[in-house]
Amino acid sequence: MPLYDFYNEKTDEIETHSMRISKLEEFKKDNPHLSQKILKCPSTVSGSGGFKNDEGWKENLARIAEAHPTTPLAEKVGGRKSKDLKTQEVLKKHGLF
Fold first, then answer.
1. Where are the domains of the chain?
2. Which are the contacts of 80, defined by CB distance < 8 A and separation ≥ 6?
3. What DSSP letter does each residue of 75-87 carry, written as one string?
């Protein structure tokens, strides 16, 4: 749920309340001494250390790279065989690739 900051005119402080958007108008009517300041989103916790690929995903990428040897994925993953590399070099040399 979103967090809302309200300025309390009676206490001269800022209060934070968590509520559904559908309840916001009703809350404002029930608390006329509060004026809305800022809408905040709740903070989320994400993993640390980045994203790591498991072996199944790496195998899947290798299969895709092998099926499409002329793609940048094949260059990155290394799914190309030496025969394919030599063939590609000859095609480039003769302007056929």
1. 3-40, 55-93
2. 65, 66, 69, 74, 88
3. HHHT---HHHHHH
| 24 Cβ contact list (under 8 Å, min separation 6) | 4
Give pLDDT tens digits for 54-90: 788 888 888 888 888 777 887 787 656 677 778 878 8
Q: Where are the beta strands (DSSP E) in the chain?
A: 3-8, 13-18, 34-40
Q: What is the pTM of this model?
A: 0.38
Cα 69 to Cα 81: distance, rounded to the nearest angstrom: 8
| Residues of the chain above pLDDT 90, percent | 1
Distances (CA, A) of 58 to 55, 62, 66, 79, 80: 5, 6, 12, 11, 14
